[in-house]
Amino acid sequence: MKQTALKLSKKMMGIAAAIILIFVFFVLHHGKNGEGERRSRVATQNGLTEIVLSENEKAVNGIKTGPPQPLFDKNQPGFFVPGSAVVWNEGKPWIYLEEKEGHFVRREIAQSRLFKNGRVLPQDFFLKDQKIVLQGAQAFLSEEFAGEISEDEE
Prior knowledge:
Layout: H1 2-30, E1 41-45, E2 48-52, H2 55-60, E3 64-66, E4 69-71, E5 78-82, E6 87-89, E7 92-100, E8 103-108, E9 113-115, E10 118-121, E11 131-135, H3 137-146
Antiparallel strand pairs: 1-2, 2-8, 3-11, 4-5, 5-10, 6-7, 7-8, 7-11, 9-10
């Protein structure tokens, strides 16, 4: 009798753990952040897709932003973008620019050239003090196209 109760107890604990994991996944995947907003919003306007994240969402998702690094090389003027900032879509390289705090858009960087472990962009590509996504760009690309996946494909 004790063994049966013990087996049943272990089984119930396993079921409870599974329910908790499902709940946590649901909250993380579909939930709201501490500010009462959805985790991220994706909107398309004028042919550009904008992703909006709060500072908290950026931190939770491991998103790091910063300015591109200027190259002080007379033979290769421009700005260096690390390879972790570059995503590929339809055979073309892209980066995500932070247009204003928490608002990101993807821009093609076809005019870039390879340089060490990243790419170099022309000096006039960036606005003054503009930031790029240095880490987490692939997550943005996935989020951008998540709406195009039908329920049957998931």
